[in-house]
């Protein structure tokens, strides 16, 4: 490996890969059994954080940024005048292994521009993963990008070596995709996704019969959507997201506020702020759907097509459904506790456990670390002291905003604990 | 404050030593008791002070007793909190153990009880430090083909991270050395041992000199620093969040932060 050449390539190909926000390295079950290198069991570790506060857990690079396509929202697009580079398979393997041995990373996230054809590109990605697994005895995490249009055979092979596969939908609506990436169509994205989903199902049913069935993409599939590139509504984004979660059993959908990268008139101009707050609200909604028992239409529907940026989506929902409150801390079931604004799932579990020993009052809750600044308006407990005024939604909203401005300017974190 | 009628037990700082003290408390039916590690022990004008010798048989008996009255989670909380080395944590743990042994219910989740809550909180900070060290250890390849890392954790977390590193780096020799507590873990491809190093006087843990480290080591550090820079998105910069995740006190041994 020539140091200077690799260094130059790494700068270009890491820079081009950074717009993919997925960073997860958890959810796999690959353990180190044969005294090889690495394991990918358990939670996945953030080894560092970028200055924008995102988790660094994987070596996230493109194999190459040469591309035959010209998607308007992408820095790698053919018509963009930038430096191009391509890694050799062995270079990626060496970088991954050496970074891993130094405890810099959990593994590799390899994506690529499409050179020659979808299959030609996918083949190279698979070759890297295969080499890592078979020649280097590497059990760390591998996330491969499924190249839209890649053949079923290649996707099947990819799943044997990778922990996770992802295809980015990028543009949440069909019309938007047509406008910005006319050469692409949704079917090309969906085909590899479908194949992987079916293989995972097949694998899971075979595993029940034969224990030694090889693993197939044990950390499942994910996708990413770009937010704010074509004026879509939050409802459109989250309904699309919900559709993909349900239809393809996705593990994660990522939302990435559009970062202006060109003067193309179809897109927000350079200098336009990245919609980070909106992105945060979308992640919160995603959380509510996956962990808090909400249906997407409860939060976003034809009457409420966009999230309120001023308050988090759970509070927004509660303000529209005040008749369901207050909730009794000492009696309510888990489902309803999870719907109380300000209560994270951790607090919910703590409450469920602690109330077995005694009836809880405000002081107990406070000491246990339950955040009450919002929750107090929606709860009653072992105390005579609770919000008795019959406030309307808008009144309550302004009261909460007034009383919690400092807390409210909380630092935005796109992917971590969003409610606590 | 130690009062004339109080009893102080001094032990060697090990977990077994602490459990031996608990044995004494029960054995001698001590009421007003303080347990202190030797390195923290303060001379007191009042009360009786006694040095307790670690006795594995006694500590084992206590642990068995605790096992009957706690959940696995509760026991791990006790151990984690112990490793915090915080002043008077022993007294807190003793109260927790007494509460557990006296109760008919398993009390590990009684968060409205002050001692249970406190132990849970301290254990949580130790757990956070464990995770940080699993993340922030940066191995550097030495001339002898050994992967060497130095750390200065807030709490004594080496015993907690050993299994993780052994599992993950099964095919390379490594050392993780706690410079603050002056001991480390050494994995020799078979097992993990505890070691004490006498580092050269001029050893600067923040520098990667060619005297100790392999030639390619600096190259990979450079590549890693480049990567770290390239993967950043300036238009999303948020230093507050960054520092919340990577507090400044850890920076000095993080290769990506050395530029
Ligand atoms: S195909 Fe992929 S890499 Fe190529 S321009 Fe489109 S989005 Fe970018």
Largest interface: A-B, 57 and 54 residues
How far is it from the N-terminal to the C-terminal residue of chain B, by CA? Answer: 48 Å
Percent in strands of chain A? 5-15%
* Total domain units of chain A: 2
**Assembly level:** heterodimer
State the share of residues found in helices of chain B, binned by percent: 40-55%
Mean pLDDT over the residues of chain A? 88
Overall strand count of chain B: 8
Proportion of beta-strand residues of chain B: 5-15%
Structural class of chain A: alpha/beta
Main-sheet strand order of chain A equals 3-4-5-6-7-8
Largest sheet of chain A: 6 strands, parallel
In the CATH hierarchy, what is the class of the largest domain in chain A? Answer: Alpha Beta
Small-molecule binders here are: iron/sulfur cluster
Known CATH architecture of the largest domain in chain A: Alpha-Beta Barrel
> If you compute it from the alpha carbons, what radius of gyration of chain B comes out, rounded to the nearest whole angstrom?
22 Å
Description:
Chain A has 420 residues and is an alpha/beta fold. Chain A has 2 domains: 3-299, TIM Barrel (Alpha-Beta Barrel), CATH 3.20.20.70; 313-410, no CATH class. Helix content of chain A is 39%, strand content 9%. In chain A, the strands form 3 sheets. A 6-stranded parallel β-sheet of chain A has the order 3-4-5-6-7-8. Chain A has a two-stranded antiparallel sheet with strand order 1-2. Chain A starts with a helix and ends in a 12-residue tail after the last helix. Chain B is of the alpha/beta class. Chain B contains 8 helices and 8 strands, in the order E-H-E-E-H-H-H-H-E-E-H-E-E-E-H-H. Chain B has a 5-stranded mixed β-sheet with strand order 4-5-6-7-8, covered by helices on one side. A 3-stranded parallel β-sheet of chain B has the order 2-1-3. The longest helix of chain B is centred in the middle third of the chain and has 23 residues, at 114-136. Chain B starts with 6 loop residues before the first strand and ends in a 14-residue tail after the last helix. The mean pLDDT of chain B is 91. The interface between A and B is large, with 57 and 54 residues. Iron/sulfur cluster (SF4) binds next to loops of chain A.
């Amino acid at each position: 490996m020539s140091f200077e050449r690799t260094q130059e390539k790494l700068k270009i190909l890491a820079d081009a890969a950074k717009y993919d926000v997925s960073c997860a390295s958890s959810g796999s079950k690959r353990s180190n059994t044969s005294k090889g290198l690495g394991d990918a069991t358990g939670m996945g570790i953030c080894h560092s954080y970028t200055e924008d506060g995102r988790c660094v857990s994987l070596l996230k690079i493109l194999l190459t940024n040469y591309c035959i396509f010209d998607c308007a929202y992408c820095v790698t697009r053919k018509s963009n005048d930038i430096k191009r580079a391509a890694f050799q398979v062995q270079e990626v393997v060496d970088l991954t292994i050496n970074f891993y041995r130094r405890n810099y990373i959990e593994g590799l996230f390899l994506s690529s521009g499409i050179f020659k054809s979808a299959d030609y590109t996918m083949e190279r990605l698979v070759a890297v993963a295969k080499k890592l697994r078979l020649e280097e005895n590497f059990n760390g995490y591998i996330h491969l990008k499924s190249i839209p249009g890649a053949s079923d055979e290649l996707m099947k092979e990819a799943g044997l070596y990778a922990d996770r596969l992802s295809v980015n939908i990028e543009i949440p609506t069909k019309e938007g995709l047509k406008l910005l990436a006319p050469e692409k169509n949704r079917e090309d994205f969906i085909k590899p996704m479908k194949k992987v989903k079916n293989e995972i199902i097949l694998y899971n049913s075979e595993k029940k019969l034969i224990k030694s069935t090889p693993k197939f993409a044990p950390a499942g599939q994910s996708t990413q959507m770009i937010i704010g590139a074509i004026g879509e509504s939050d409802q459109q984004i989250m309904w699309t997201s919900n559709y993909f979660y349900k239809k393809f059993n996705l593990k994660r959908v990522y939302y990435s506020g559009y970062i202006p990268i060109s003067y193309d008139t179809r897109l927000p101009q350079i200098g336009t702020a990245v919609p980070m707050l909106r992105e945060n609200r979308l992640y919160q909604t995603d959380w509510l759907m996956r962990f808090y028992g909400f249906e997407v239409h409860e939060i976003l529907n034809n009457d409420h097509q966009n999230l309120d940026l001023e308050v988090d989506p759970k509070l927004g929902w509660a303000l529209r459904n005040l008749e369901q409150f207050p909730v009794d801390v000492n009696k309510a079931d888990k489902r309803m506790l999870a719907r109380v604004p300000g209560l994270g799932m951790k607090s919910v579990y703590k409450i469920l456990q602690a109330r077995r020993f005694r009836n809880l009052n405000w002081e107990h809750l406070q000491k246990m670390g339950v955040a009450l600044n919002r929750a107090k308006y929606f709860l009653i407990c072992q105390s005579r002291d609770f919000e008795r005024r019959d406030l309307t939604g808008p009144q309550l909203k302004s009261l909460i905003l007034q009383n919690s401005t400092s807390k409210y300017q909380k630092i935005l974190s796109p992917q971590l604990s969003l409610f606590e | 404050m130690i009062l004339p009628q109080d009893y102080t037990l001094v032990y060697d700082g090990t977990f077994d030593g602490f459990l031996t003290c608990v044995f004494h408390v029960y054995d001698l039916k001590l009421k007003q008791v303080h347990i202190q590690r030797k390195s923290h022990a303060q001379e007191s004008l009042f009360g009786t002070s006694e040095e307790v010798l670690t006795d594995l048989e006694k500590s084992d008996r206590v642990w068995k007793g605790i096992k009957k009255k706690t959940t696995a989670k509760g026991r791990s909380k006790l151990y984690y909190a112990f490793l915090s080395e915080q002043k008077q944590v022993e007294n807190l743990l003793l109260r927790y153990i007494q509460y557990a042994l006296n109760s008919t219910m398993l009390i590990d989740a009684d968060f409205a009880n002050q001692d249970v809550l406190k132990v849970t909180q301290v254990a949580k900070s130790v757990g956070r430090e464990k995770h940080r060290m699993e993340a922030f250890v940066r191995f550097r390849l030495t001339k002898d083909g050994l992967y060497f890392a130095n750390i200065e954790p807030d709490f004594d977390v080496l015993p907690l991270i050993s299994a993780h590193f052994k599992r993950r780096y099964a095919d390379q020799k490594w050392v993780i050395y706690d410079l603050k507590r002056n001991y480390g873990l050494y994995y020799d491809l078979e097992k993990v041992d505890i070691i004490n190093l006498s580092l050269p006087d001029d050893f600067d843990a923040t520098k990667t000199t060619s005297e100790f480290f392999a030639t390619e080591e600096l190259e990979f550090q450079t590549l890693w620093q480049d990567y770290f820079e390239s993967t950043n998105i300036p238009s999303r910069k948020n230093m507050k969040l960054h520092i919340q995740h990577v507090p400044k006190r850890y920076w000095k041994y993080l290769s990506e932060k050395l530029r």
